[in-house]
Amino acid sequence: DKVKDWIIAAQMKDGVKSPALSPFQAFLLGASAKAIATIVTYPLVRLKTILQAGQELAKKVSGSSVGLKPQRGLKPQRKSSKEMLGIMAVGEGGAP
Length: 96
Hints:
about 0% strand
């Protein structure tokens, strides 16, 4: 909304009688907002999924000799993601 307000204010400053966003401008603003939201939230959603999957796996094999324990919280998961994936963990949503 702030960007939209800036565009309309610039149009008013230029002397446009009825300032409004064109369909193309509205599309670009919406696409940009979606891209930014995805970039910000994807790593968190990915990490949540990894945490949930790890806990389910630990529950299934808790009686076996593997010795997996459920990891609670983000720090242990981020550490194990970094150990498993190295620098690629950043692209996979498990950034330290």
